[in-house]
Design goal:
The chain is built from twelve helices and 20 strands. With about 475 residues, it is of the alpha+beta class. A six-stranded antiparallel sheet has the order 13-6-18-17-15-16. Strands 8-7-9-10 form a four-stranded antiparallel sheet, covered by helices on one side. Strands 1-2 form a two-stranded antiparallel ribbon.
Length: about 475
């Protein structure tokens, strides 16, 4: 898709792209700021402003507690301003108030409801509540989906192996069941995909069940660059294992063990003689079904500018492919590759759903931390950092797929928002928590001038990051 086609597609669906972005961001910002707000109130702190968005107020009202609730013109964030702070970022405080044309000191009653007079553990709790509620919100969304729709689980088995891939090189075979990677238990094929994506080309230790035998394999995925239809690029690791979620359309098979066939019927007859053996099938690109550990939905699709999956090592079983022996033409015949049930939806009670959602949130956080560290040490490019442009593109594309994918994306973004805000960068919640941690250790607050300079540096850093990510997004879109 070229740039002009992309612009046309987004333009035709501008309300979906723009509306879904504003909706999701507004929900996440409200949840985050509400965490600060509700814990501040519980700790006896007066909240002066609760704003969704920045800039000029569009609509607002005052509640009985004196808080100004408002929606502002720029819907790309929000803030809660606590009583006694000189700005919404809590980068400074003052014990004086403007009273008409005069400036007076706070009364004893006013000092009691000021944020800066609270104990350090209370201030830390108020700050922590923002990212904390983002995690709780994500867990609630995921758990709700697991209870109402079940949790999709695909077995961590190699239904097939890409010919010429690192999986073949290191000795993986069809029907290998992956038990652990670097000691981590593997329950779902998506666990393999996620581990390889973050690993890039780093070595990993696998424990694999093959038949009745348990073996160990040390392997490296191949680092490749994935580029989506918007032009956004990401480095990922690809091992070359094919998941069990889908089969291969018979009409997409062009050869078996190097011998090419003219039509589907010839392929069908040859496949019948090959059942329960291991062989290689060649694929017509862009037409087959399947799932590779890169997360790509079609094993024959282009992985990046230089790599196309065009052949697979398979070992299909007779009892998993009864349709191949039907005499009537059923249309889209499929060759099923896995020896296990391709996918199932696991039913959950509320308790088990919450446990699974917590585990998923933990895994996402660890993956984000690993990817961020790779950017810091230089093994992953900083150009993979996305700004509001990339988030908008992904959100709009997801919204067009339906409400369930959009809810899943909202949960993921909520986790990312919580994670980012916990980073120890001044101006973010993590920066405040760092200062409160130092205060609790040394027994007194870090001097305000040090905090002020730190917050200024943090502000410049964050503005720089925002400018870089969004300019990078626009550049990738154009090029």
């Amino acid at each position: 898709m070229n740039f002009f086609e992309l612009i046309q597609m987004v333009g035709e669906n501008i309300w979906i792209y723009g509306g879904s972005l504003i909706l999701v961001l507004s929900i996440l910002v409200f949840v985050h700021e509400w965490g600060h707000y509700i814990v501040a109130r519980m700790c006896g702190v007066r909240v002066e402003k609760f704003s969704i968005g920045f800039g000029k107020e569009i609509y607002g009202f005052n509640d009985k507690a004196g808080t100004r609730w408002k929606i502002s013109m720029i819907p790309l964030g929000g803030f809660v301003q606590l009583f006694g702070d000189t700005n919404p970022a809590s980068a400074g405080h003052s014990d004086t108030l403007e009273d008409g044309d005069e400036v007076r000191e706070m009364t004893e009653e006013e000092l009691k409801v000021a944020f800066f007079t609270k104990k350090v553990w209370q201030r830390a709790l108020i700050v922590l509540a923002g990212p904390g509620i983002n995690y709780l919100f994500a867990i609630a969304l995921l758990a709700g989906l697991y209870v109402t729709h079940g949790q999709p689980v695909s077995p961590p088995t190699a239904a097939a192996v890409m010919e010429g891939s690192n999986a073949e090189k290191y000795g993986f075979k069809p029907h290998d069941l992956i038990l652990t990677i670097d000691g981590k238990g593997i329950e779902d094929f998506s666990d393999i995909r996620r581990e390889m994506m973050v690993a890039l080309d780093e070595e990993r230790h696998f424990v694999v069940k093959r038949g009745g035998e348990t073996i160990e394999i040390t392997a490296r995925p191949k680092k490749v660059t994935m580029t989506d239809k918007f032009g956004f690029s990401n480095s990922i690791g690809i091992l070359g294992l094919i998941g069990a979620e889908k089969g291969i359309l018979i009409k997409s098979i062009k050869s078996i063990d190097g011998v090419e066939y003219d039509n589907k019927q010839q392929v069908l007859e040859e496949l019948k003689t090959r059942m329960d053996t291991t062989f290689i099938i060649g694929l017509k690109t862009k037409e087959s079904g399947g799932n590779e550990d890169s997360g790509d939905s079609s094993v024959a699709d282009q992985i990046n500018d230089a790599t196309i999956i065009d052949s697979l090592i398979v070992a299909p079983l007779t009892d998993k492919n009864p349709e191949l022996w039907q005499t009537e033409d059923i249309g889209e015949e499929v060759l099923y590759l896995s020896n296990l049930q391709p996918e199932k939806f696991v039913s959950h009670t509320m308790m088990t759903a919450v446990q699974s959602a917590i585990n998923e949130s933990y895994v996402m956080t660890v993956s984000s931390l690993q990817a961020l560290w790779q950017i810091v040490v230089g093994t992953r490019s900083a150009t993979e950092l996305g700004g509001i442009v990339r988030i908008g593109a992904i959100t709009g594309e997801t919204a067009m797929q339906g409400i369930i994918p959009l809810i899943l994306l909202t949960a993921l973004l909520s986790i990312n928002l919580g994670f980012i805000n916990l980073l120890p960068i001044p101006m973010l919640d993590g920066g405040h928590l760092l200062f409160y941690g130092i205060e609790s250790i040394i027994g007194k607050a870090v001097p305000e001038y040090i905090q002020e300079y730190s917050f200024r540096a943090g502000f410049v850093f964050l503005i720089g990051i925002m400018a870089f990510t969004n300019l990078n997004d626009i550049y990738q879109l154009i090029t």
